[in-house]
């Protein structure tokens, strides 16, 4: 059954991806744009169709008809696929023909690429356990399906959900968490293909295949693609395709090209706040390369068409387009000091950043010493090849664009956050440059250099492959049906056992009263809830909720009928809630002991805690 589900998910992803390509192909034809190569044109068509579909998905959620609207978009994509199939198949066949291996080494490397992609796809179908996904990537989209499109002030991260989160909403609205995770895998596969297309401009087939394989084996990439539940990988895809379009050799500098690059850039800026640094770097490249006021204006117009929507949403809801990062100035009444401090610490914006940290950071070698992990490890490939990149550097547009976007984006992210994982959108660009550098060592006959660096890259690949094997083994077992979903989640899902107790106790209450919880990982809750953790929720302000009376008024205003303590209340608000328990204003109706992670999940340390469910006395 599990394998049948995986096959169905794969077929569904393939059909929808081809639908994106068909939709995009129609739009490219309307713009009278043709890429130099069939592979480039196909990838560009997918990108254009995808970003346009995301705009449609945004409008669908605004009109509060998410499920029916998503079915309509599926029908639209399927219709375009039927109409465009002959044209699409011709391009696809030519693109696949270009992948034909020229040597036995090429065949081996290509086989490894396909195997790694398959392993990551199956791993991605495991039940969701990524921490950030359970907090907001998936949790917020599930809440939108349940309560409609509205501001969720009880989750400060909800305002950071960008355009690519709509693909998660798309999958969930179609009734499949696995399809939603499949969309994230699709982003990784498309980014790998875009990297290969970029690198093939100056590297041989075996070098392209090797660097594509290294990309798939990079810890931060396979973490993003398989278990994180984050759609950030799509920013890397759009950055690579934007660079491809801007570097077309046979294209004149037309208004269509400028508009298309803008449309793709909006897919980056609309994906995440830090995507704005990559978008700004691409804007600078457009200014330098096109040198046209009309071209820059059309670039900006294209960016707004595809990327303005999350910022417009936040502006309408809060008055701050990048809420809550400018909340103290633009909307001070909507954000609490306590929650902002927690959020700024989590995103790195409150930390100091020095020039000494910039160089290793730019070469993907800088990590936070306080909490290093898979989510920040890019590996040493770019750093190892940095000297060869400098030797390969040429004053051609394709080199200028890639280096400029990579360096300028890295500088912006370094000084605004300093979190290495935010460099993911420019990682494919840097790897494409690294492939060009390695190709120089082969072309110039530098045997010793080639062997030394080749050996280092081989060891890196083997180490990353071992990491992938260890990291994904449990996910693979449950994805192919060798382990029960519930048992897997009980062992690996943060706060899953708490959610299970709450669902079992309150799932049949049959009214609209909400449950106040203090758990961050709320995706698996199937009851109406409000998060009461002051570090996450703008709804709960410790400065205003100081007495039992304040809490009673809060419960009445927010229609809260139940409170879940597991095991303790947050210390900053514990006093009045404990008083209410003693006074009988919060009456215990259920209690159960469960296991929960202690500290960071990566340590795998668990402890038994009580889950106490209390009813609010009216």
Describe what this molecule looks like in 3D.
By secondary structure, the chain is mainly alpha-helical. It has a domain at 490-616: 3-Layer(aba) Sandwich (D-Maltodextrin-Binding Protein, domain 2), CATH 3.40.190. The chain contains 27 helices and five strands. It has helices at 2-31, 38-62, 66-97, 104-124, 131-137, 139-147, 165-173, 177-199, 205-217, 219-226, 233-246, 255-269, 275-290, 293-307, 309-318, 327-330, 337-347, 358-362, 381-384, 386-392, 397-416, 427-443, 447-479, 485-492, 496-506, 548-557, 574-583; strands spanning 514-517, 529-531, 560-565, 586-597, 606-616. It has a five-stranded mixed β-sheet with strand order 2-1-3-5-4, with helices on both faces. Helix 6 (139-147) packs across helix 7 (165-173). The mean pLDDT is 92.
Class by SSE composition: mainly alpha
* Assigned CATH class of the domain at 490-616: Alpha Beta
Overall mean pLDDT stands at 92
Radius of gyration: 25 Å
Termini separation comes to 48 Å
Anisotropy-based shape = globular
User: What's the helical proportion of residues?
Assistant: 55-70%
Individual helix count: 27
Stretches where pLDDT is under 50 for at least 5 consecutive residues are: none
Query: What is the strand arrangement across the widest sheet?
Result: 2-1-3-5-4
| CATH topology heading of the domain at 490-616 | D-Maltodextrin-Binding Protein, domain 2
Strand and helix map with partners:
Layout: H1 2-31, H2 38-62, H3 66-97, H4 104-124, H5 131-137, H6 139-147, H7 165-173, H8 177-199, H9 205-217, H10 219-226, H11 233-246, H12 255-269, H13 275-290, H14 293-307, H15 309-318, H16 327-330, H17 337-347, H18 358-362, H19 381-384, H20 386-392, H21 397-416, H22 427-443, H23 447-479, H24 485-492, H25 496-506, E1 514-517, E2 529-531, H26 548-557, E3 560-565, H27 574-583, E4 586-597, E5 606-616
Parallel strand pairs: 1-2, 1-3
Antiparallel strand pairs: 3-5, 4-5
Helix pairs in contact: 1-2, 1-3, 1-8, 2-3, 2-11, 4-8, 4-9, 4-23, 6-7, 7-8, 8-9, 8-10, 8-11, 8-22, 9-22, 11-12, 11-13, 12-13, 12-14, 13-14, 13-21, 20-22, 21-22
């Amino acid at each position: 059954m599990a394998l049948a589900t995986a096959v169905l998910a794969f077929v569904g992803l393939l059909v929808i991806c081809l639908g994106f390509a068909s939709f995009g192909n129609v739009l490219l034809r309307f713009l009278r744009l043709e890429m130099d190569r069939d592979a480039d044109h196909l990838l560009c068509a997918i990108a254009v169709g995808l970003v346009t579909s995301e705009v449609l998905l945004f409008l669908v959620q605004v009109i509060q008809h998410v499920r029916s609207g998503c079915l309509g978009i599926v029908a639209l994509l399927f219709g375009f696929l039927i109409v465009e199939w002959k044209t699409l198949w011709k391009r696809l066949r030519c693109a696949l023909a270009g992948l034909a291996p020229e040597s036995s080494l090429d065949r081996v490397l290509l086989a490894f690429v396909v195997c790694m992609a398959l392993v990551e796809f199956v791993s991605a179908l495991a039940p969701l356990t990524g921490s950030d996904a359970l907090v907001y990537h998936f949790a917020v989209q599930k809440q939108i399906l349940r309560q409609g499109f509205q501001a969720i002030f009880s989750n400060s991260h909800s305002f950071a959900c960008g355009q690519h989160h709509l693909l998660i909403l798309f999958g969930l609205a179609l009734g499949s968490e696995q399809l939603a995770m499949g969309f994230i895998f699709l982003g990784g596969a498309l980014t790998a293909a875009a990297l290969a297309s970029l690198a093939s401009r100056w590297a041989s087939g075996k070098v392209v295949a090797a660097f594509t394989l290294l990309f798939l084996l990079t810890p931060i990439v396979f973490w993003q693609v398989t278990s994180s539940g984050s759609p950030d990988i799509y920013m890397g895809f759009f950055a690579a395709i934007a660079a491809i379009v801007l570097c077309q050799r046979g294209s004149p500098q037309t208004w269509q090209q400028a508009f298309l690059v803008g449309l793709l850039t909006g897919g980056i800026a609309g994906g995440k706040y830090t995507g704005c640094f990559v978008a700004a770097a691409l804007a600078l490249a457009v200014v330098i390369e096109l040198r046209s006021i009309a071209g820059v204006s059309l670039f900006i117009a294209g960016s707004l068409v595809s990327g303005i929507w999350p910022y417009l949403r936040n502006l309408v809801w809060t008055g701050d387009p990048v809420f809550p990062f400018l909340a103290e100035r633009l909307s001070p009444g909507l954000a609490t000091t306590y929650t902002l401090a927690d959020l700024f610490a989590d995103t790195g914006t409150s930390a100091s950043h020095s020039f000494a940290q910039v160089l290793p950071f730019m070469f993907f070698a800088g990590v936070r010493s306080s909490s290093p992990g898979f989510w920040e490890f890019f590996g040493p490939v770019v750093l190892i090849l940095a000297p060869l990149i400098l030797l390969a550097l040429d004053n051609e547009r394709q080199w200028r664009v890639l280096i400029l976007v990579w360096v300028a984006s890295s500088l912006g992210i370094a000084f605004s956050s300093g979190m290495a994982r935010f460099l993911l959108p420019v990682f494919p660009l840097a790897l494409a440059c690294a492939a060009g550098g390695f190709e120089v060592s082969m072309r110039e006959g530098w045997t010793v250099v080639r062997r030394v660096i080749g050996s280092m890259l081989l060891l890196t690949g083997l180490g990353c492959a071992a990491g992938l094997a260890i990291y994904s083994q449990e996910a693979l077992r449950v994805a192919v049906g060798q382990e029960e979903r519930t048992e897997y989640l009980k062992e690996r899902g943060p706060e899953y056992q708490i959610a299970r107790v709450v669902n079992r106790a309150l799932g049949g209450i049959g009214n609209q009263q909400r449950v106040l919880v203090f758990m961050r990982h709320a995706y698996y809750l199937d009851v109406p809830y409000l998060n009461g953790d002051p570090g996450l929720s703008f709804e709960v302000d410790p400065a205003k909720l100081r007495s039992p009376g304040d809490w009673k008024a809060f419960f009445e205003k927010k229609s809260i009928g139940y409170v879940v303590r597991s095991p303790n209340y947050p210390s900053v608000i514990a006093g009045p809630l404990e008083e209410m328990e003693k006074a009988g204003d919060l009456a215990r109706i259920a209690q159960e002991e469960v296991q929960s992670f202690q500290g960071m999940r990566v340590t795998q340390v668990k402890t038994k805690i009580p889950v106490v469910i209390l009813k609010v006395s009216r």
